[in-house]
Amino acid sequence: MALDNYRIAIFTRSMNYRLYKASSNTISLPFKHYRLLYTTADGYFYRMLKYEHVDYAINIDEDAFVVDNEALLALLEYCVKEKIVNCGMRDGGVLPIRHGNPIVTNPFFNILDLRTIRKYFSCQVMHECVRSLNVSEVLGNEEFPADYMGSLTYEPFYPFFLWLNTRFKVLYLPVEQHADGYTTILKNHVGQPMLYHSWFSRHYGVDAFHTDRINALYASCTPEALQYSAMERLRICSETFINKRALPTLLPVRRFVLKVLKKI
Predict the structure, then answer these.
(1) Domain boundaries of the chain, sorted by first residue
(2) HSE on the CB side for 234, CA within 13 Å?
(3) Residue 13 in contact with residue 64, Cβ under 8 Å?
(4) How does the average pLDDT of the chain come out, rounded?
(5) Is the distance from CB of 161 to CB of 105 less than 8 angstroms?
(6) DSSP 3-state of 165
(7) How confident is the model at residue 238 (pLDDT cuts 50, 70, 90)?
(8) Could you point out which of 9, 134, 145, 243 has its C-alpha 20 to 30 Å from the C-alpha of 74?
(9) How far apart are CA 137 and CA 248, in angstroms?
(10) Helix (DSSP H) and strand (DSSP E) numbers for the chain
């Protein structure tokens, strides 16, 4: 299927440039890649919707590595052809590493039809949907191989995906656990492995075990060694300062100001 008539882009919510570059090195698809910084887990998607020149968004976490770009492209073509508004892995019920709500798709990977979402989305409509949602009714008698819970608020992005996945056509992708005991192998619509999601991104560069594990995962996806220019090293230092020093100081102040403004 030709995708020339669609404006497609890749988006990544990023907090670690080293991981972002590693993930980017595994992507060979011919689409512009946007790195979004300093967003909340749900605000990331609201910001994505503002890119009105984009029809379809491929959302890939910075700790996710593409192992088969052709399989990913085939999935994109399938989603466009079948008018699927969202696809991804269930956030619970499929693997031991996540035990959230299986209606939700975990945002380490999604293909999103932004045109359709923009047409119908508003925060008011989303919250009204969630307030009236009956999880048991939606899931019916479906059985799952792993534990899950029916929470509507387990993660900040839950309202968005609960609304999205109960109002539009969604494709839940097959998964399996990697031999390292942590990584999720995500497959496309015909069962081809296409992406490895390492999890534990916040441990990268902090915890030796997970850092080594994620580096090994990256090396299994591409022979390209990770190298950084002088400007990139400066960027890494500045972002590390902001993430570890500036943001922890400023965010409580921001929350306090917003709380006061709500009372005015």
Answers:
(1) 8-227, 228-264
(2) 3
(3) no
(4) 93
(5) yes
(6) helix
(7) confident
(8) 145
(9) 41
(10) 10, 12
Question: Which 3 state secondary structure label does DSSP give 120?
Answer: helix
The answer to whether the predicted template modeling score (pTM) of the entire model surpasses 0.85 is: yes
* Structure-token pair, residue 14: 């990023």
- Whether residue 67 contacts residue 195, with contact meaning beta carbons closer than 8 Å, is answered with yes
Helix (H) or strand (E) holding 56: strand 56-60
Kindly report the CATH class assigned to 8-227.
Answer: alpha beta
Residue 151 half-sphere exposure toward CB, CA atoms < 13 A: 15
The answer for residues whose C-beta is within 8 angstroms of residue 59's C-beta and 6 or more apart is 10, 11, 12, 13, 48, 107, 109, 110, 111, 112
Residue reference for tokens 């990023």: 14
What residue ranges in 61-180 does DSSP mark as E strands?
A: 64-66, 86-88, 92-95, 98-99, 109-113, 170-172, 175-177
| Residues 238-246: contacts with CB under 8 Å, at least 24 apart | 239/15, 239/16, 239/17, 239/37, 242/38, 243/15
User: Under 8 Å CB-to-CB from 178, ≥6 apart: which residues?
Assistant: 184, 185, 196, 217
Angle at 209 between CA 204 and CA 212, to 5 degrees: 70
Q: Compute, in degrees rounded to 10, the torsion defined by CA atoms 105, 118, 112, 76.
A: 160
Report helix, strand or coil for 246.
Answer: helix
- Quick check: 49 and 43 in contact, CB under 8 A? no
Q: pLDDT band at 258, cuts 50/70/90?
A: low
